[in-house]
Structure formats: structure tokens, C-alpha cells
């Protein structure tokens, strides 16, 4: 039986992806709402999906990563003002993980940016309204740009056998794409962009559908190519992304955080010549030092389920911060997560306590992150 959408929606306000019927047909068991769309988050047990990602290959409907498209004579200058990254270093055919910053240095979003032309960009969004932010900034910027939501819907093919699946679909040239590079191509007449990216820390690709009427065809074509490699549709794997040190906007960082707090300061190109929104604020924060930090933690005791609220983090009897994401890692056989704490509590080895809803307090220790593959060698292989 298809998942009963009345459990999460009443009326037609929430949009469905071009792959929605396929996810229903293949047995999606749960959905959430992300960027005003329905997002399938589970087809089986979460840990079962985790092991399949680690050992085989998985297919995700991530069409909720809506694409803000920026074009026009001044598109490069405009897009370059949205982020601390120096986009002059991003060639056509390349992508970048970027942050979109507010005037106070806050993180509005952390999209993957693709440069399709000298003045043609896509921003693949986390769950916040960058389209409205960008259009508001453009209004009085004096720059000649057009900003819209493109008819583009990505899928992710992730796992150690992803190369075999992509090779069967597109050939060796696409398999050989370097990390964060992409190619525009067609598959059985279906227009797509294929990128060497993903949200897993595993080998992976994203296939961006450019015609929303052909979602079902693309889904089944990928499943057919993946069948010899045991491909399965799954939801996004929080276990693996936490192991990999990947952050989730809205949980681990919000508009109230800056890059220096959450460990994304490498996304600020200090030598960038041109101005961008938030530059003065970020320079001040760097000079003064961040007063709080997002630390990696290990939590003692029996395995936990992922937190649905931010748990309180304590030192002695005082609440000093919050645990933003926490989960059990089957490979590490440990409970791991992130804690936003005052900077003085973020040093490796610091002892804390986490007060977990319905469980009580447990000891926790600050540890290095990422928890697995700190040099990100796996996704680059």
C-alpha cells in the first residue's frame, strides 16, 4: 500500500517531486516537509539503509534541494556577493560547497553551487528561502540579473558501487569526473546534469533532472542500471552524514550561527578581492574569536535513537549548551553527535553531560570530528 499522505498533508499546498509516484511505488514509509515539498526519508529500517549505503548503492529522491538559478549579464558579480567563497576560482563545469551569509555573518544557507556558464549559476538549497533573499538583494543592487527557481530536480546515487551504476548509465567519461565537477548530458533523451557530489561521505553522484515531466522515466532507468549492483531507494542517511562531519542546516547551524562557530571557516576565502554580504561582520568575529563552537562528542551508555529536539548539555550542574544532532554509529559502536557549547568547553577531552529526553543524563566527551575519514578520502576515490 502507498504511504498515506493524509498523515502529513491536508490540501495541495505541499509540492510533490517528479519522483513522488516512484517513491510511493517503491515503498516509502515516511515523509517530512523540506523546502515546502514532501521528502521521503525512509523505505526500510534506518540502520538497514545505512548498511546498504556502506556496502552497496542507494538512490535518494532529493528534489527538495530546490535550485535557485541566477543568470544575466551581471550574474557572476551578483552571485559572488552572496558568499565568502571566491567564485573567480570556480570554473565553468565546477561546483563548490558554499555558505550564503547575512549582513551579520549569519548562515542563511549552505548550498552546493554549480557554475554552468560564465554568468549562469545554480544553488542547490538546504531548507531555507534563499530565492526570496536573493531576489530581495537584487531589487536595489543595480545589477542585471534574473533569479528564479529552475525546473531542476536532483537524485543522489550513493555508495561504493555508485561508479558502476553511473558508468552503465553514462559511460566512463562521467565515472571519471573529479570531486565537485559536473557534466551536462542526456540519458535516453532525458536532459540531466551529473555531478560528483553527495551528502554521505561515500562515493557518490547527483543526477539533476532538467525536465520535471520525466521523473518517473529517470528513476526507473537508474533502478534498472543499478539492479545488478543491488541498488535500493532509501532516505537520507543521518548516521553516515554525522560520521562524516556533515552538518544539517536548521539543526546543527541556523541563521543565528556563523562559519567560525560551526567549523566552516574554510569556506571564507581570505584573499577574496571583491566585496560580499557579511564581510565586515565575519572579519570582526574572526578577530574577536568565536564565543561558542560546535564540538564533536561521544555519549556513553546504551545506543540512542536520533534526537528529535536539541538536548541540553551540562557541565557540573549548569546548562552550557545544546546537543544539536546525536545518533548511534553501528561501525564505531558508539553514540556520536554535535554539541554547541561555549568555546572554552570545546577542547578535545572536555567532559560534559547530556540530558536526553526520556533517558536522563549521560556523560559525554568532546572528540575530534569528522568521526570517520577526517581527510574525506572516501568520496574522492
Comma- or semicolon-separated keywords:
381 residues; alpha+beta; Elongation Factor Tu (Ef-tu), domain 3; six-stranded antiparallel beta barrel; 21 strands; 20% helix; globular
What is CATH's topology name of the domain at 242-367? Elongation Factor Tu (Ef-tu), domain 3
The CATH class designation of the domain at 242-367 is Mainly Beta
Percent helix, as a range, is 10-25%
What is the CA–CA distance across the termini?
A: 39 Å
Q: Whole-number radius of gyration?
A: 21 Å
As laid out across the biggest beta sheet, the strand order is 12-13-14-11-3-15
Report the principal-axis shape: globular
Q: Structural class of the helices, strands and pairings?
A: alpha+beta
Beta-strand residue fraction: 25-35%
CATH H level, superfamily name of the domain at 242-367 = Aminomethyltransferase beta-barrel domains
Number of strands: 21
The profile of the biggest β sheet is: 6 strands, mixed
Based on the coordinates given, report the CATH architecture of the domain at 242-367.
Beta Barrel
Low-confidence stretches: none
- Give the rounded overall mean pLDDT: 97
SS element count, helices: 10
How does this model look, in words?
The two termini are 39 Å apart. The chain has a domain at 242-367: Aminomethyltransferase beta-barrel domains (Elongation Factor Tu (Ef-tu), domain 3), CATH 2.40.30. Strand 8 (112-117) and strand 9 form a beta hairpin. The model has no long low-confidence stretch (mean pLDDT 97). The relative contact order is 0.14. The chain is an alpha+beta fold. Helix 5 crosses helix 7 (215-226). It has helices spanning 20-25, 46-55, 75-80, 130-139, 162-170, 172-175, 215-226, 238-243, 259-262, 279-288, and strands at residues 30-34, 37-42, 58-61, 67-71, 95-97, 100-101, 107-109, 112-117, 120-124, 146-149, 153-158, 182-187, 190-195, 204-209, 232-233, 292-299, 311-315, 318-329, 334-342, 351-356, 360-367. The longest helix has 12 residues, at 215-226. The chain is 20% helix and 31% strand. The strands form five sheets. It has a six-stranded mixed beta sheet with strand order 12-13-14-11-3-15. Strands 16-19-18-17-20-21 form a six-stranded antiparallel β-barrel. Strands 5-8-9-4-10 form a five-stranded antiparallel beta sheet. The chain contains ten helices and 21 strands. It is globular.
Amino acid at each position: 500500500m502507498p504511504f498515506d499522505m493524509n498523515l502529513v498533508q491536508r490540501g495541495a499546498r505541499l509540492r510533490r517531486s517528479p519522483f513522488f509516484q516512484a517513491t510511493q511505488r517503491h515503498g516509502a514509509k515516511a515523509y517530512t516537509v523540506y523546502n515546502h515539498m514532501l521528502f521521503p526519508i525512509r523505505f526500510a529500517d534506518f540502520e538497514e539503509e545505512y548498511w546498504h549505503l556502506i556496502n552497496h548503492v542507494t538512490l535518494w529522491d532529493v528534489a527538495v534541494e530546490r535550485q535557485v538559478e541566477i543568470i544575466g549579464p551581471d550574474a557572476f558579480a551578483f552571485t559572488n556577493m552572496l558568499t565568502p567563497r571566491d567564485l573567480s576560482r570556480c570554473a565553468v563545469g565546477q561546483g563548490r560547497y558554499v555558505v550564503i551569509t547575512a549582513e551579520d555573518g549569519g548562515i542563511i544557507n549552505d548550498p552546493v553551487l554549480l557554475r554552468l556558464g560564465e554568468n549562469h549559476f545554480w544553488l542547490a538549497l538546504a531548507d531555507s528561502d534563499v530565492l526570496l533573499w536573493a531576489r530581495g538583494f537584487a531589487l536595489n543592487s543595480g545589477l542585471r540579473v534574473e533569479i528564479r527557481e529552475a525546473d531542476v530536480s536532483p537524485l543522489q546515487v550513493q555508495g561504493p558501487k555508485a561508479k558502476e551504476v553511473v558508468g552503465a548509465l553514462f559511460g566512463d567519461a562521467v565515472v571519471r569526473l573529479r570531486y565537485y565537477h559536473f557534466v551536462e548530458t542526456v540519458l535516453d533523451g532525458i536532459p540531466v546534469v551529473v555531478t560528483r557530489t553527495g551528502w554521505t561521505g561515500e562515493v557518490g553522484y547527483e543526477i539533476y533532472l532538467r525536465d520535471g515531466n520525466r521523473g518517473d522515466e529517470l528513476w526507473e532507468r537508474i533502478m534498472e542500471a543499478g539492479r545488478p549492483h543491488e541498488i535500493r531507494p532509501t532516505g537520507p542517511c543521518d548516521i553516515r552524514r554525522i560520521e562524516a562531519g556533515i552538518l544539517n542546516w536548521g539543526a546543527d547551524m541556523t541563521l543565528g550561527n556563523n562559519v567560525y562557530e560551526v567549523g566552516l571557516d574554510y569556506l571564507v576565502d581570505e584573499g577574496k578581492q571583491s566585496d560580499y554580504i557579511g564581510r565586515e561582520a565575519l572579519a570582526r568575529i574572526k578577530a574577536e574569536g568565536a564565543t561558542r563552537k560546535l564540538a564533536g562528542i561521544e555519549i556513553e551508555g546504551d545506543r540512542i535513537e536520533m534526537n528529535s529536539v536539541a538536548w541540553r548539555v551540562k557541565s557540573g550542574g549548569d546548562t552550557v549548551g545544546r546537543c544539536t544532532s546525536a545518533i548511534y554509529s553501528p561501525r564505531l559502536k558508539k553514540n556520536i553527535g554535535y554539541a554547541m557549547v561555549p568555546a572554552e568547553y570545546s577542547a578535545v577531552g572536555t567532559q560534559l553531560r547530556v540530558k536526553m529526553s526520556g533517558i536522563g543524563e549521560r556523560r559525554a566527551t568532546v572528540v575530534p570530528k569528522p568521526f570517520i575519514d577526517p581527510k574525506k578520502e572516501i568520496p574522492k576515490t
